[in-house]
Amino acid sequence: MWNFQHGQPAIANDTDIFPFVWTTQHMGEIGQGLPFSLCLLSILMGHEFGHYFNCRRHSVATSFPYVMPAPTLIGTAGAVIKMRSRIKSRQALLDIGISGPLWGFAVAVPWLVVGVLLSKPLPTNAPAPMVWLQNPAIVHVAFRVLRMLHQSVPPLDQTLFHPVLLATWIGLLITSVNLLPAGQLDGGHILYSVSPRGHRYATHIVILLMIVAAIFYWLPWLVWAVLLMMPLMKHQPVPVLPEPDETATAKYVAAAVIFLLTFHYMPFIGYQGDKTVQFSLSNLPQILGH
After folding, report:
1. What span, in angstroms and rounded, lies between the C-alpha atoms of 208 and 213?
2. Which of 36, 45, 190, 218 would you call most buried, defined as having the most Cβ atoms within 10 angstroms of its Cβ?
C-alpha cells in the first residue's frame, strides 16, 4: 500500500524485493498491508474450503484448510488441506478437483472488480517497475467492461495496481497453475477422472512444455516441472465406479474456461533500464550480469 499511495509500482526497487529491513523501520505501516493480505487469503481459503466441503460430502477424511507462512513476496507458500483417506470414486475425484478452482475463482472475480475500481492512473513521473505483470484474459476483460461503465477507469497499461488488484492477480495465477492437467494438481485430478491413461500422457507433455517455457519465457516453470517429476506428485489409483454423473461435462467446461481466463505462459517480465527482459533460462547470463 505504501508504494501505491506514493505513486510507485509494487516492485520499483530492490527494497520491494527484500522488504525485511524496510519493514522493521516502518512498523507503523504494517496495517496498510491488510487489503492485500485479506484479499489474497480469502481467495486461497475459498479455494481450499471448496476442496474441504466436497471432501466431507464424499466422506473423505481431511484436515481443515490452513495457510503456510513463508518469507516470500506474498508472505505465504499457499494454503492446503491434508486428506487422510483415499478418494473413493472418479465422481468424488472430479467434484473435489473442480471445487477448489471454482470456489477460488468465484471469490476472485468480485475482488477483481473492486481492485480495478480502487486502482488509479499511473503517474507520469512514476519510476519504471523492476517487474511488469503480464495480465491473463480475465483481467483484460474486467478492464474493458469496467471502462465502458466507468470513464474514470484508466487503460490497463496505464494503471497503477491497487494492492487488492495485485492480490487478485496472484490468486488468479495460483488458480491457473492448479488447473494444469498434470500430477496431483487440481487439473490433474479433473483429467484423471476422465482418463487415467490420458492423465499419464498429459503429465509428461506438461512437464516437457514447462521445461521449454522455462528456457524461453519464465524460469519458475522449471521448478514446477521438477515438482511434477517427484514421486509424491504421481496420481494415486482411484476406483472407476461410480463414474462422473451428467453434470461432469459442465464441470469439465468450467475448468477449461477458468484455465483459459486465468493462465499466462509468462506471468511477468523484468526491466533493465528502458528494456524489458524475460526471466528465462536463456536470459539468465544477462540477468546475473546485470
Report:
1. 9
2. 190
H helices then E strands: how many in the chain?
A: 12, 7
Please choose, from the candidates 194, 145, 188, 168, the residue with its C-alpha nearest in 3D space to the C-alpha of residue 262. 168
pTM attached to this predicted model: 0.92
Residue whose C-alpha cell is 488488484? 165
> 193: closest CA among 153, 247, 142, 141?
247
pLDDT class of 221 with cuts at 50, 70, 90? very high
**Residue-range domain boundaries for the chain:** 2-179+249-289
Helix, strand, or coil (residue 258): helix
At residue 63, the pLDDT reads 93
- Is the pLDDT at 97 greater than 90? The verdict is yes
Mean pLDDT to the nearest integer, 175-195: 95
How many residues are there in the chain? 290
Tell me the C-alpha distance between 33 and 112, whole Å.
17
